[in-house]
TrEMBL record:
Keyword Iron: yes
Domain of life: Eukaryota
Lineage: Eukaryota, Viridiplantae, Streptophyta, Embryophyta, Tracheophyta
Listed name of the protein: Fe2OG dioxygenase domain-containing protein
Keyword Metal-binding: yes
Keywords tagged on the record: Iron, Metal-binding, Oxidoreductase
Organism listed in the record: Salvia splendens (Scarlet sage)
UniProt similarity note: Belongs to the iron/ascorbate-dependent oxidoreductase family.
Domain named Fe2OG dioxygenase: residues: 163-267
GO-annotated molecular function: metal ion binding; oxidoreductase activity, acting on paired donors, with incorporation or reduction of molecular oxygen
GO BP, one annotated term: response to molecule of fungal origin
Function recorded in the entry: Probable 2-oxoglutarate-dependent dioxygenase that may be involved in glucosinolates biosynthesis. May play a role in the production of aliphatic glucosinolates.
Amino acid sequence: MGSETTPELLILDFNNPGMKPGSNCWTSASKNIREAFENHGFFVALYDKISPQLHKSIFKATQDLLDLPLQTKIQNINEKPYHGYMGQIPIAPLHEALGIDYADTLEGAQSFTTLMWPQGNQSFCETTMSFAKTVAELEKKVTTMLFESYGLEKHADPHRDATTYLLLLMKYGVPNEGQTTLGLPPHTDKSFISILYQNHISGLQTMARDGKWINVQFPPTSFVVMAGDACKAWSNDRVLSAIHKVTMDSKGKETRYTAGLFSFLTKTVEVPKELVDDEHPLKFKPFAHVDLLKFYETEQGLRSQNLLQDFCGV
Ligand SMILES: O=C(O)CCC(=O)C(=O)O
Ligand SMILES: [Fe+2]
């Protein structure tokens, strides 16, 4: 793919038994998360809470879902942009995805399952909910640690209480000869945090601050934890929400599946006053998270080279 993995990317081991709130290990990991977000916009998390059985079943569930007829899949409509069915995009013909809003809750998982399988599909419902719940635990840990490392632990609880989760199940087909290898065009995520889990086929590339593309190699049992635009705005522009894309191997023979959990806020996204000072004047006005998604869908949003600046820049 023409670029190399940069050496100083953070790989953080959440399985370390010493990583308990308040411990030295936790405090130094929190600092590492903040630095990784500020320097690269993401890190790789080792987190063994997904059992081999759940690993198998989440990708089986993803495949079963994406194998449904198109008429069924397009019934997944959500008033929030990029939460429903995505696919059939001429510039990214290999990509297809479906969003399960509130996938970590029984209501969310059940209503999506019934929409796709009116006759029921208990194992799909249980698998997706269990996966979403487990990854949501990781998201909560990461945000708590990020808040703590900025000295803002008192904001962590209200933030967590206002967080909802979207599970996106994605497929990238094998490119035919002469067909584009672009799986997903370059973009930043509009989420607060995105956590990606992939099968054994890689393809994710992120753009470093210096503009170079980095191939993100992460083993199928690890996660990429990425900051979204809402996190960048909240941090008053300290955190990078990295531009990223997916490129498939032109000689590859297997479909790539990704399960991604994206966090969104039901309360106003705003810069805490502690993150504003003479050195860091306020960069962004407060906004409703869903309005950022809606702005991105407008002609101005789609054309924008600096989405946050154009949407809520001071
Ligand atoms: O499949 C991936 O690795 C990336 C997916 C992604 O960037 C997205 O859905 O926003
Ligand atoms: Fe993304």
